[in-house]
Amino acid sequence: MKLTTAGESHGKALVAIIEGLPAHLEIDVERINAELALRQSGYGRGGRQKIERDRVEILTGVRNKETLGSPVTLCIYNKDYANWESCMSDRACDENIMQAKSLTKVRPGHADLTGILKFEQTDARNILERASARETAIRVASGGVFKQYLSALGIQIGGYVKEICGIKDEGKYTFEELAKAKTTATGMIDEQSSRLAEEKISALKKDGDTAGGIVEIRVKGVKSGFGSMMTYAEKLDANLAQALMSIQAVKGVEIGAGFAVGKTSGREIHDEIYFEEEKGYYRETNRAGGIEGGMTNGEEIVLSVAMKPIPTLMKGLKTVDFLTKEQAIASSERSDVCAIFALEIIAEAVVAQVLADCISKRLGGDTMSQIKNRYDLLP
Questions:
Q1: To which H or E segment does residue 72 belong?
Q2: What is the pLDDT of residues 229-246, one digit of tens each?
């Protein structure tokens, strides 16, 4: 399966084209819209979430709630475009408004300066409009489609927020308990940790600062043998890490025990293997995070994703004005203080995309019934 996204933060719309979906996959648009609403939730979000209220429109590839086997096109119209059309239109723009909306006081931690230099621009808006995390809205919508594909095979994806700016939720949760994370303001499950995180976010907002954090993503129901060790390009853990690192502001990905594997011995870290007739092969621990040798081993897939603090601060950092080369304070765009709750939703969508692609490559099939029958036959 192939996903292509397009669109600018304040442009007309965000668009995605999904190629390779089988025929007769039932699509529930409201389930996708529910994912989009979750992406806009969470304590510490900014004012734009109140403007957009994202909803997806399916333009091609689905008829009577089922995929046709042709490319599926998704679209999210940017409601805020009405306020930006005079300087974001594909037609001739108002030069005065373009100048007023230009951004030359480039922001540390953002794509602004590197992008200006790479693409020979003089206005960072030509960079930030695509680099913006607004792009993740269409990836979440696409992830909603991929999740429905996986769900038809009995595969579920969940997660929660483990840490926000040093405040940790150190609980150990079953997969079923993860659903509670979607009902809290921070995405944390432990109530005391969530309250402390809210207090931290409020303090950062008052100081014009932003928060980073860590989320955990879990996948249940993926059978053994997806991915491969035969070529590096087929390693599932590598593909998951690449996809998660492609999310704006993500700076770290761990699988299973992650960096802890470098701090201990083999006897303490490797998951011993057992066999019972009723259960088949199994492990009593899962420090490998469900992936060994680049392949799923039948255990839950466990991923941790670290997001840096948002680089747009209301009290900007020291920088340089690209045009004058003079010292300045970085420009402020409308922004969030904390978007870790959103990261959890986005990460689920990205993981769903990688798994759907991996499964379809192994199973083939033109219709969902063919794919499901082949999946059910796997041990």
A1: strand 72-77
A2: 999 999 999 999 999 999
Averages of pLDDT over runs of 10 residues in the chain (379 residues) are: 97 98 98 97 75 89 98 97 95 95 95 97 96 96 98 98 97 97 97 97 94 98 97 97 98 97 95 94 96 97 97 91 95 84 98 98 97 97
DSSP-derived letter for residue 25 is -
pLDDT in tens, 261-275: 999 999 999 999 999
Instruction: Output helix, strand, coil percentages for the chain, rounded to the nearest 5.
Output: 40, 20, 40
Q: Which H or E run contains 99? A: helix 95-101
pLDDT of residue 324: 96
What is the C-alpha separation between 274 and 256, in angstroms, rounded? 19
User: Which residue in 173, 136, 172 sits closest to 49, CA to CA?
Assistant: 136
Distance CA 332, CA 236 (A): 39
Cβ neighbors of 13 (< 8 A, separation 6 or more) are 7, 75, 76, 77, 78, 81
What are the Cα distances from residue 8, in Å, to 84, 133, 164? 11, 10, 28
DSSP 256: T
The three-state secondary structure class of 233 is: helix
- What pLDDT, on a 0 to 100 scale, did the predictor assign at position 315? 87
Q: What span, in angstroms and rounded, lies between the C-alpha atoms of 191 and 238?
A: 34
* pTM of full prediction above 0.90: yes
**Which two three-digit tokens encode residue 360?**
């379809």
- HSE, side-chain direction, 13 A CA sphere, residue 247: 32
Q: How are strands ordered across the β-sheet holding 167-168?
A: 167-168, 156-164, 213-220, 301-307, 250-255
**276: three-class secondary structure by DSSP:** strand
CA distance 84 to 274: 61
C-alpha angle 236/239/242, rounded to 5°?
150
Report CA torsion sign: 277, 279, 283, 289.
positive
Rounded Cα distance, 239 and 235, in Å:
6
